[in-house]
Amino acid sequence: MYVAVKGGERAIDNAHAWLAEERRGDTSVAELTVPQIREQLALAVNRVMTEGSLYDPDLAALAIKQSRGDLIEAIFLIRAYRTTLPRIGHSEPVETDTMACDRRVSATFKDVPGGQVLGPTFDYTHRLLDFKLMAEGELPAAAEGEPRLEPTPHVTSFLNKEGLIQGEEHAEVMPPDLTREPLELPANRALRLQALTRGDEGFILSMAYSTQRGYGNSHAFVGELRIGKVAVEMEVPELGFAIEVGEVELTECETVNKFAGSKVEPPQFTRGYGLTFGQTERKAISMALVDRSLRSKELGVEVSNSPAHDEEFVLYHCDNIQATGFLEHIKLPHYVDFQSEMELVRKMRAEIAEAEAGSSVKEAAE
Fold first, then answer.
1. Which InterPro entries does the entry link to (predicted)?
2. Where are the domains of the chain?
3. pTM of the predicted model, to two decimals?
């Protein structure tokens, strides 16, 4: 056994060395630096920060480099690192009304106070390969204008003035922290939103898409999608008031859904909500659609058997780190398990063969 263990250790060390060699690639090609990844692969960095629950572009870029571009592995690295960090306090809720918007669009109102800001987006690109990007030293043309610095009220606030949209209730108690406590069902909305934020973008996207195809009985409009930086404030006990400790870039999406009303609620609109790190608008929109779908029961809306209505199905299967761990563990040694099952199959086949032989003898005797 000792020799086998030592051989296994040597194989693992060699596998790690080989992995490092593969990660570096052709040494005649310049090595990617963390700042290059942070600045030029920003959307990948933003996804890793969002699903890793840690806002640090440098560490997210490092994780992408270490994982050879495998974003789920990078998210795993960030979550693992996050568990080593001390918790010294918590920030105040961010005020997205004061966001310095790089992008702000609404699909419900053409002319909104503050205006629409197209911002950096793929929405109107031709989806054709740009071979100029293969040339080195190309500098992009500078964009005109500056981010909005004045407060930009949310579009749904205008619906609020007429009472056309359901109001949001803000709990006075501290919401549960999914990064420190296991998920428990039924989950309140704050916990669901945390799970959706940390959930795999592809999974949340597919659930959102299913609601649009008729499996969620819900048709949504993007009331507003905004991307920009907001200040993060933290209360310092010694001072007795909150001070600004930094800023983060966020994507926020509010969807608007028609609601026919109930015995206690008049016909009105309801909301779905998504909030993510960086520019991750596909994730934020998907999250808002799924959030609204999971609210159906509490709104008194007819709930179908569709997956997007099933809180347990969505929340227990959206986490890509848990899914990856359970999926990939089957490639690890299962020698004993397989040998026992193989013996069982042999025994069953022997019993069947014995029974068939006995039946043949009996028929011959007759």
1. PhnI (IPR008773)
2. 2-82, 96-126+146-325, 335-365
3. 0.86
